[in-house]
């Protein structure tokens, strides 16, 4: 009984934090948090009501609808507003687009406290039914529903909210600053856990256009086999959108749904003085192994190719490397691109981690320094009756061999450029 009560308390705490954060963002005119909240609510409603919901916020076929289930015949508008105009406007838009033919029932979920009465305007479809007592739900209604569930269902909701909003929970990740929206990807593939790496290589004081950076990379990796193995995303096949003048974007979208428990997503963006590479994996189990080939490989080959770019003497190089995960990512030493002696121990990360470095030049020592910092973000999982070091033992000699091997595999392209 105590466990169930504590789970209910945790759910109330997290919902209250969402409500407060949305109110603050709304007053300051920022709406990015709202989209992430819609995705969180999709999972909570699925667990609480056993709906088979999908995120429809970007589906042009269903304007004004955020979540929906054709199986259950329901559409849900998620809003932080609680005024009568919002309800009437939502219903009017729903009927105007004939969505009642796909979703016989419409629900308005208010991430706020509902008011006493909602007088409704006459419907343009007189056969449509909307009960303000049942079809308008606020967080208080949601909590009351959750209290009627089985203890295991309540626990699952509490654990999900804690996973998405760890700690105090106010810092819900804003995917807007990243190229990959992990919440949208998770919702699309119905996978609960992710591991997202985001690399930014910025050339300070260089004055490099996106076109110059692109031509450098395109010429350097002109061998299709080298490009396929070391920088797959840099391909005309994957260039699917641009920002007009000044940037170009390559994207390997989410793989098809034949891989039921696994998905991945890659984006490369080239803009003025900047390269951004992001890679995200999604999976069904909390624990996931990685040898960091996909996460570190593209960054390393780009940095090893820098001599061919011939940066001006005054230029600097700023590198930032972000890991984000809501699971437990364990380092796997087999064929790893990061050289470390794990001594049969388990090293992992389970939160947002960031590494930033500024360099004047990028040589072996600078690369070793950067990789040492990345290795240090993994911590040891203590085992009973064993005395182990808390951090991985970075193998500088082994890493240097790995870098030289990688350099030898891609460097023939440099001779071709010089010729």
TrEMBL record:
Limits of the SMEK domain: 10-147
Pfam families reported for this sequence: SMEK_N
NCBIfam families tied to this protein: SMEK_N (NF033859)
Entry protein name: SMEK domain-containing protein
Species for this entry: Mucilaginibacter pedocola
